[in-house]
Design a protein that fits this description.
This protein is mainly alpha-helical and 146 residues long. It has helices at 21-40, 43-62, 70-82, 119-135, and strands spanning 14-16, 19-20, 64-65, 68-69. Helix 1 runs antiparallel to helix 2.
């Protein structure tokens, strides 16, 4: 059976002339707010307030930042502005005093000494392991029935 695979699924359909549904809503909302401002306020004040609203609605409808719609930038700005910010890199290291380390019953915590291996000692150990493995390779017996 053959099925048709939809293509260009990222492209929105043009519903209102050259505008998509979202673009039409953004432009219609901006123009609607501007008309209401012109009806309620004096002309000079309405122009001052309505002009940024119309520009913002046009940016929402048509402007793209790095190939993504402007609404994504506005959403990121609002999230960043209203969420808590945690700066991990300002964390201060606490100095631990060995005299203050005690268990619940007042006994001091036992400290275990772990020796550190230098690079030369580590290389020597890995070399000896490689040599011993090559001298005594692990052989598997073939399984019956193959």
């Amino acid at each position: 059976m053959r099925f048709q695979v939809p293509q260009f699924i990222e492209v929105e359909d043009k519903i209102f002339g050259p505008l998509t549904f979202k673009q039409f809503i953004y432009i219609g909302g901006g123009v609607g707010v501007a008309v209401i401002l012109f009806l309620l306020l004096p002309r000079f004040l309405a122009i001052i307030i309505a002009l940024p609203i119309v520009v913002f609605s046009a940016a929402l409808a048509f402007y793209k930042v790095h190939g993504k719609p402007f609404i994504n930038v506005v959403e990121a700005f609002v999230k960043y502005t209203f969420t808590n910010k945690l700066y991990i890199w300002k964390k201060e290291d606490k100095v631990v005093d060995s005299r203050q380390q005690t268990v619940d019953r007042g006994r001091p915590i036992e400290q275990v000494y772990v020796p550190k291996l230098s690079d030369s000692k580590l290389k020597e150990l890995t070399w000896s392991l490689d040599i011993n493995e090559n001298r005594n390779p692990v052989t598997k017996e073939p399984e019956d029935g193959l």
